[in-house]
Amino acid sequence: MLIVEDEEDIAFPLVRTLEREGYHVQRVDTGQEALDQLAARPAEVMILDLGLPDMDGLDVCRKARESGYEGAIMIVTARAGELDRVVGLDYGADDYLAKPFGLAELQARVRALLRRTVGHNGGSHLPEGALRIDAAARRVFAGGSEVALTGKEFDVLSVLAAQRDKVVSRDRLMAEAWDENWYGSTKTLDVTIGRLRQKLENAGVTDKVVAVRGVGFRLEGADV
């Protein structure tokens, strides 16, 4: 998921909220950076502010579509007028949310866009072996194929994915995937990680769950 927003006080809570939902989030603050990011690694959803410092967000929307970007585009802006809404949709946006907005509403809109995008494309636009986590449906996909995970395997993967390429401590994994008051053996985590690794490997997922000795685990590799 790509967030294009130059206002830190808006971008920070938005990124944090979506990461907690299990989405892999990239954030840029200019239109050109957004276009460069989409060219290098197309996101399934782009959340796009119109008031960017280098170019109008509508131009970013139009150029993204002209370059072949097929993901969903949600415009968020303080321009709440009917004319802007219609123009934004004409430029290729899929949805429009006026500032200020509630994070719960934005999350619901994102889930709806993902369902629409995946349903429309049948998952075929995902590269083979690319990992995608549908946090709302608690489903995991390798390319266009679903990977069957248990509830705890999904929870562990979601925590790791929210901190992609960063080490997550064993204590944090236990607290978030189980319960902070759970006092069972930490071997339960190792068993769950082992099963998760095997399932991802069998499905051909290119991402790897890497153990960092004495600290915890890290999810690393390419993402959609």
UniProtKB/TrEMBL annotation:
Gene3D superfamilies: 3.40.50.2300, 6.10.250.690, Winged helix-like DNA-binding domain superfamily/Winged helix DNA-binding domain (1.10.10.10). It comes from the Bacteria. The keyword Disulfide bond does not apply. CDD domains: trans_reg_C. The modification 4-aspartylphosphate is found at residue 49. Keywords: DNA-binding, Phosphoprotein, Two-component regulatory system. Residues 1-114 form the Response regulatory domain. InterPro entries: CheY-like_superfamily (IPR011006), OmpR/PhoB-type_DNA-bd (IPR001867), Sig_transdc_resp-reg_receiver (IPR001789), WalR-like (IPR039420), WH-like_DNA-bd_sf (IPR036388). Residues 123-221 form the OmpR/PhoB-type domain. Residues 123-221 bind DNA. PANTHER family: PHOSPHATE REGULON TRANSCRIPTIONAL REGULATORY PROTEIN PHOB, REGULATOR OF RPOS. This is Response regulator transcription factor.
